[in-house]
Amino acid sequence: MKVSKIINNNAVCSLDDRGREIVIMGCGLGFNSKVGQEVDKSKMEKIFRMETEDETKRLQNLLQDVPIERVQLVNEIIENATKVITDKIQRTIYITLLDHINFAIERVYQNIQLYNPLLNEIRRFYPREFMVGQEAVRLLNKELSLAMPEDEAATIALHFINAELGRDTFEMVDVTKIIQNAVKITKYHYNMELDEGSLHFERFITHLKYFAMRVISKERLEKEDEVLTEIIRTQYPKAYRCAEKIREYIYQEYGFDASNAELSFLALHIERIFM
């Protein structure tokens, strides 16, 4: 494995066994290195392999500007996250999270505090990712002697949610708002609190997450089953009316007319919560 480009004293580029460009990081790895030399394997700490050439260049640019101790902390955060989050995390998390945390640290040094208006919702609807965010904040505060607020845990959690679902941050904010309001509509429709620790509630939230992404992407569930829809409407009238209220809210806010098939699935999940 030979050096093809020197990024800085701690990072170089090379090619893997399939000729794809990779970024290799390690303390002092690029110091006194020359293009064409063998990479010093004793100093290698992390190999980054992005999906596209553009992503590789973005990572290279970041590594040029970000202190190595911050890069190492972000690596540790991501490694810890993989023990908690079972879904596949896209490799772009190394770019987006490194960029975000680098600026978040600078904000703390400048005494600039940003509040996350979705803190409580992210805590409720994405507990695994929020726990990862909390651990990240604890690690950063401990290792860099910072006073990073809990709001930052929610924002870090959003980056992991994005990396799981392949969405950008602005879309996930809308997705979270849709989940939040759908839960509110359900609670007020039944005039009772929901058991947020139940398995049925967890499944409802998971369904709402993908329903909300379809709303944002304007993807309708076109496969209709009129017989099934009528059965659900007849057997679970209260749950179906609740699903209709959610559809009305979605249409008013996002101009998306959810199909009857979508309503049927929503009604089934709502009914299970109150069974």
Strand content: 5-15%
Global geometry: elongated
Summed up, the domain count is: 3
Structural class: alpha+beta
Q: Which CATH architecture of the largest domain is right?
A: Orthogonal Bundle
Mean pLDDT score, rounded?
89
Using DSSP, what is the number of strands? 4
Structure description:
The chain has 275 residues and is an alpha+beta fold. The protein has 3 domains: 50 residues, CAT RNA-binding domain (Transcription Regulation, Sacy, Chain A, Roll); 100 residues, PTS-regulatory domain, PRD, CATH 1.10.1790; 106 residues, PRD domain (PTS-regulatory domain, PRD), CATH 1.10.1790.10. 61% of the residues lie in helices and 6% in strands. The chain is built from 11 helices and 4 strands, in the order E-E-E-E-H-H-H-H-H-H-H-H-H-H-H. A hairpin with a 2-residue loop joins strand 1 and strand 2. The model has no long low-confidence stretch (mean pLDDT 89).
Structural key phrases:
275 residues; PTS-regulatory domain, PRD; 4-stranded antiparallel β-sheet; 11 helices; 6% strand
Topology:
Layout: E1 5-8, E2 11-15, E3 21-25, E4 46-48, H1 53-65, H2 68-81, H3 93-109, H4 119-125, H5 127-144, H6 151-165, H7 169-190, H8 199-217, H9 226-235, H10 237-254, H11 260-274
Antiparallel strand pairs: 1-2, 2-3, 3-4
Helix pairs in contact: 1-3, 2-3, 2-5, 3-6, 4-5, 4-6, 5-6, 7-8, 7-10, 8-11, 9-10, 9-11, 10-11
